[in-house]
Specification:
By secondary structure, the chain is α/β, with parallel strands linked by helices. It has helices at 46-53, 77-86, 103-113, 118-131, 148-160, 178-195, 206-212, 230-236, 238-243, 249-260, 274-284; strands spanning 3-12, 20-30, 35-39, 61-66, 69-71, 87-90, 166-170, 198-202, 215-220, 223-229.
Length: 289
């Protein structure tokens, strides 16, 4: 599902002494079936932006199109419900979304809430526990008995049970150890490739942006600074990325190395990944590839 923002503004507490504008004239296309990362420093408007997509916040001005549905300030409750049926959202520390007495009940809750038939609910349930490799021995346990990574996986299953067309992820791997982090990122990539999901991910992990995303939206002070293909954005806006500290570890390492070797032009275009770094080093040292 393609998502199009047209001239979207958002103002918190309008017409009060506490009025604050969080989004300014957002024009943006989030392509169908791709992973799009939303990046920017704290307070840049990332969370406000994603909450417009499922109508948690309605734009003060402008509109967001999702297929044949439009979110604006006057959207009716019926259309809003249908949009939320197609747009799943996993919040930061999503394990806090769990509330049922058993894991199975928690996973199925979203499907029941959106009135899936019993057969569809059971079919989706089986698909999802297999996809996420949730052990059957966990299903009758309380979610509170599980580890943090397991709980977050259950929260994800509860969103996927009703098969949304769009999946919004707000810092989905925050607080996870390295292996669990990679496991989740690989699941998201699998969902994109096998289910054709449009995935929108807010993250401060630039490695995840470069290694898993197709597109990136870079926000600052409630505005979109730059958007487009990940590698093009990072390659063509390196001074901006450096100024705003939106660098991968490889970029930061390369920049420091470049500063120490002022007469060397090896890192004029900072590599984004380990593979690119190795290639540049080989070329700089005249090593045969």
């Amino acid at each position: 599902m393609e998502i199009i923002f047209k001239n979207v503004d958002y103002i918190y507490q309008p017409n009060t002494p506490f009025q604050r504008q969080a989004l300014f004239d957002i024009n943006l296309v989030i392509p169908h079936g791709k992973i799009t990362s939303i990046i920017g420093n704290t307070g840049s408007g990332k969370s406000t932006l994603i909450k417009q997509i499922n109508g948690l916040l309605k734009p003060t001005n402008g509109e967001i199109s999702l297929g044949d549905k439009v979110i604006n300030n006057n959207i009716n409750s019926h259309d809003l419900l249908e949009i939320r049926r197609n747009v799943g959202m996993l919040f930061q520390f999503s394990e806090r979304q769990l509330f049922s007495s058993t894991v199975a009940e928690d996973i199925k809750f979203g499907g029941v809430n959106y009135h899936l038939s019993p057969d569809e609910l059971e079919h989706n349930f089986t698909d999802i526990i297999n996809l996420l490799e949730i052990d059957n021995s966990l299903l009758n346990k309380s979610p509170l008995e599980l580890s943090g990574g397991q709980m977050r996986k259950i929260a994800l299953a509860g969103v996927l049970i009703y098969h949304p067309k769009v999946l919004i992820l707000d810092e989905p791997t925050i607080g996870l150890d390295g292996k669990t982090h990679l496991d989740f990122m690989n699941v998201f990539k699998q969902l994109q490739e096998k289910w054709g999901l449009t995935i929108i991910m807010v993250t401060h992990q630039m490695e995840d942006v470069v290694n898993y995303s197709d597109n990136v939206v870079f926000m600052n002070d409630g505005k979109v600074l730059v958007q487009g293909d990940v590698k093009n954005v990072f390659k063509n806006n390196q001074q901006l990325m450096i100024e705003k500290n939106m660098m991968t570890d490889v970029m930061e390492f390369s920049l420091n190395l470049y500063k120490k070797q002022k007469d060397c032009h090896l890192f004029e275009n900072l590599p984004l990944t380990i593979d690119e770094l190795i290639k540049k080093i080989k070329l700089g040292l005249n090593i045969d590839e």
